[in-house]
Amino acid sequence: MAETGTGTGTKKRKMSERRKADTKKSTSKWPIIKPKQNLQISRLKDTDLFTVQNFFSSAESKAFVKAAESLGFVHQGSLGPLKGEAYRDNDRISVNDPVLAETIWESGLGKLFTDIKILGKVAVGLNPNIRFYRYKVGQHFGKHIDESVSLGDGKRTYYTLLIYLSGGSKAKAKNDLSDPNDSSLEPLVGGETVFYGSRNNLVAEVAPTEGMALLHIHGDKCMLHAAQNVTKGIKYVFRSDVVFA
Predict the structure, then answer these.
(1) Which of 82, 86, 103, 238 could cysteine-pair with 163, CB 3.0–4.6 Å?
(2) What is the rounded CA–CA span in Å between residue 149 and residue 94?
(3) For 10, which DSSP code?
(4) Per-residue confidence (pLDDT) for residue 85, from 0 to 100
(5) Which stretches in the chain have pLDDT values below 50?
(6) Which of 169, 178, 167 is nearest to 234 (CA)?
(7) What is the widest separation between alpha-carbon atoms in the chain?
(8) DSSP 222
């Protein structure tokens, strides 16, 4: 479930992300990110795929959702599998914010990559191109791979970072007088990130959980993956990439 979608078929065709006019100016309303202590990695099987529970607190996650909604999402689609692109139907925001990227990296994410090297390169930070995704009921992202992107000066992205901003139970208070038809108040159902092996066999299925980070290698070694259909509630995701140099 990442942003540079290469569709499936008899041949995998790579494409550069078709950039929409949805890049927003940075905002000062981002939540204050507290330092993360004792982050624990859960590696999924024998893959370059791992999760980190509670990377964002519930308050941080909700504050990011509020900030993203205030900027305004833009619908993102694709030309579809017949044109070599993965099917895609979600809403998206892109902001260029080096300060936010550095803040999240320094909060504890960088420590998780201390021992990871790729082609002699070490992880040095996050891509300042920060994206937010919103999937409403019926929206999903078909099977695709994420491409590695050069940022110049020998820097290149090699890992996708997804942080789920919704997911898990979200019980309403008894005195909640908000709109009963507001799907953002409903528990999220669906929206799993599913990874496939070389023979299209299921390798892992990750259910969105508020505040949980999911990281996986991308580029030539990227596993085919998809974002499953949302059947209830709204799925919000923070997205960036880990940069190596």
Answers:
(1) 238
(2) 16
(3) S
(4) 82
(5) 1-3, 8-21, 170-180
(6) 167
(7) 57
(8) P
d(CA 87, CA 75): 13
Question: Are residues 43 and 217 in contact, defined by beta-carbon separation less than 8 angstroms?
Answer: no
CA dihedral over 121, 124, 129, 135, signed as positive or negative? positive
The first and second tokens of residue 123, run together, are 């992880």
Nearest 5°: the CA angle 67, 208, 205 is 150
Residue pLDDT, tens place only, 7-30 = 543 333 333 444 444 677 665 589
Locate 206 and state its tokens.
Answer: 């990750």
In angstroms, how far is CA 25 from the centroid of its own chain? 20
Please tell me the predicted confidence (pLDDT) of residue 6: 56
The 193-196 sheet, strands edge to edge:
141-144, 224-227, 193-196, 202-206
Kind and range of the H or E run holding 103:
helix 98-104
Q: Extract the tokens encoding 143.
A: 């099977």
Does this model's pTM top 0.90?
no
Residues in the chain: 245
Residue 55, both tokens: 């990377």
Q: What is the pLDDT of residues 35-63, one digit of tens each?
A: 999 999 999 877 899 999 999 999 999 99
Q: Which of 194, 162, 204 is nearest to 46 (CA)?
A: 204
Specify the 3-state DSSP secondary structure of 70.
helix
